[in-house]
Design a protein that fits this description.
Radius of gyration: 24 Å
Number of helices: 5
Structural class: mainly alpha
Oligomer: single chain
Distance between the termini: 53 Å
Shape: elongated
Number of strands: 0
Length: 141
C-alpha cells in the first residue's frame, strides 16, 4: 500500500525547519567569526588570552565550524526535499522507488531513501580476521 503524503503538511514542516536551521547557522557563523582575547575580542584590555583559554577557544571554534557544516548539509537536503515536493517525487525512495514510510518521514522529513535502502547504504565493516580463521587459512595452504 502506498504511503499517502500530504504535500502541504510536509512543505510547511520543511519550510519551518529550513528557517530554524538557517537562523541557527547564522548565529553559529557569528560565533565563529567573533575574535578572541584583547580589546578586539571584547575584553577590557589588550592582554591576549592565556594559552589554555586560547586552546578552549580553538576547540569551541572547531565544534562550531562542524555544526555549521552539518547545518549546511541538512539545509541542502531540505531544499532538495522541497524540490521533490514540487516535482511530485516526495515520499518515494530514490533507490528502489517504493514509498517511504510515514514513520521514517516523521523522523527524517527530508529523507531521500526508505529505511531499507538507507540501512543498505551504510558502509559495512569487513569481517574480523579471527585467530581461528587465520589458522585455517595457514593450515589449508
Amino acid at each position: 500500500m502506498a504511503t499517502q503524503v500530504d504535500p502541504n503538511h510536509y512543505r510547511e514542516w520543511l519550510t519551518a525547519l529550513l528557517a530554524r536551521l538557517d537562523r541557527d547557522r547564522s548565529q553559529l557563523k557569528e560565533e565563529v567569526l567573533r575574535p578572541a582575547g584583547g580589546e578586539a575580542g571584547g575584553g577590557l584590555s589588550d592582554v591576549p588570552l592565556h594559552l589554555a583559554d586560547l586552546g578552549s577557544h580553538v576547540s569551541e571554534e572547531d565544534l562550531s565550524l562542524d555544526l555549521v557544516h552539518n547545518a549546511d548539509e541538512t539545509i541542502g537536503e531540505i531544499k532538495a526535499a522541497l524540490a521533490r515536493l514540487d516535482e511530485g517525487k516526495f515520499g518515494r525512495c530514490e533507490r528502489c522507488h517504493k514509498p517511504i514510510s510515514k514513520a521514517r518521514l516523521r523522523a527524517v522529513p527530508y529523507a531521500r531513501l526508505c529505511a531499507g535502502c538507507a540501512r543498505g547504504k551504510a558502509p559495512r565493516s569487513p569481517p574480523r580476521n579471527t585467530y581461528r580463521q587465520r589458522g585455517r587459512r595457514a593450515g589449508g595452504q
